[in-house]
Design brief:
There is one protein chain. By secondary structure, this protein is of the alpha/beta class. It has a single domain (2-252), classed as TIM Barrel, CATH 3.20.20.330. The protein contains 10 helices and 9 strands. The protein has helices at residues 2-9, 21-24, 26-39, 56-71, 89-94, 110-123, 148-158, 174-183, 212-224, 242-252; strands at residues 44-45, 77-81, 101-107, 129-133, 162-166, 190-193, 200-202, 205-207, 232-234. The strands form 2 sheets. A 7-stranded parallel sheet has the order 1-2-3-4-5-6-9. α6 links the parallel β3 and β4. α7 packs across α8. 49% of the residues are buried.
């Protein structure tokens, strides 16, 4: 969502986080959702990653607006919430925005993600909550260097319904995916949202190295390694465009 908004409309003129576009430029956000729906997405992720960093009243309003925009397209909606809230209880408050799933993502520290899970679980006991961490290539979290298996156990103990990884390119995830498959019970869903790589600047444009077809093939390969019968949810993170999602949908149609 973030990289698509930046690619199509550029950075905000007023310097405010992109979550404010839910209020200031909702049409831009709707256009991104529409493109992903047309590409074959089966779930839409809200433009709310940075809502936990806003003032409480602003964050709640912007989260509700983000869910409402995504609802226009008739698909299930995941409320994206990132790390960094000063008080973990904000995650429970934001969870009441009306989404079908709370997606706690881009957390680099397993303990912080677990606190967010507990906050959502306490506020909305029946609402599904997933926790996605950012792992290095060796299968340890970027902060505190927690092994994937230990991180998964911490998140499940906190009440997460699904566990996964995001914000790393596909070729940086095999070790993490193998460790998560070994650690998670077979019925626990795994969520993988790889990025399109580390961007480089070409003139005024940030270019991501993974083109859609090889990215989709690599993500499909990660899914093919899933434990038998495990529900697996696949998507994209930074730099993954609707073209990447369309390629992934095509690649998965044969599975």
């Amino acid at each position: 969502m973030g990289t698509e908004l930046l690619r199509s409309q550029g950075p905000p003129d007023d310097g405010r986080p992109l979550v404010w576009r839910n209020e200031d430029r909702p049409g831009d956000v709707a256009d991104v959702h529409a493109a992903h729906a047309a590409a074959g997405a089966s779930l839409l992720t809200t433009n709310t990653l940075l809502a936990p960093l806003c003032a409480p009243a602003d964050g709640e309003r912007l989260a509700r607006l983000g869910v409402a925009i995504a609802r226009r397209f008739g698909l299930p909606v995941a409320l994206s919430l990132g790390p960094g809230a000063a008080n973990p209880t904000v995650y429970g408050t934001l969870a009441s925005s009306g989404a079908d799933l709370v997606l706690l993502e881009t957390f680099t520290e397993a303990a912080a993600a677990a606190e967010a899970v507990r906050s959502v679980r306490a506020a909305s006991p029946s609402l599904p909550v997933a926790a996605l961490l950012v792992f290095a290539g060796d299968g340890r979290t970027l902060s505190c260097r927690t092994p994937a298996a230990a991180a998964a156990a911490l998140l499940l103990d906190a009440g997460a319904d699904a566990v996964g990884a995001n914000c790393a390119p596909p070729d940086g995830l095999p070790t993490t995916v193998a460790a998560l498959h070994a650690a998670l019970p077979p019925a626990v869903p795994l969520i993988l949202r790889p990025s399109a790589g580390i961007p480089c600047r070409i003139g005024e444009v940030e270019a991501y190295p993974w083109a859609a077809p090889p990215w989709a093939a690599a993500v499909r390969a990660l899914a093919a390694d899933a434990a038998p019968g495990r529900p697996t949810l696949l998507g994209g993170c930074c730099g993954a465009t609707p073209a990447h999602i369309a390629a992934l949908a095509a690649a998965l149609s044969a599975l």
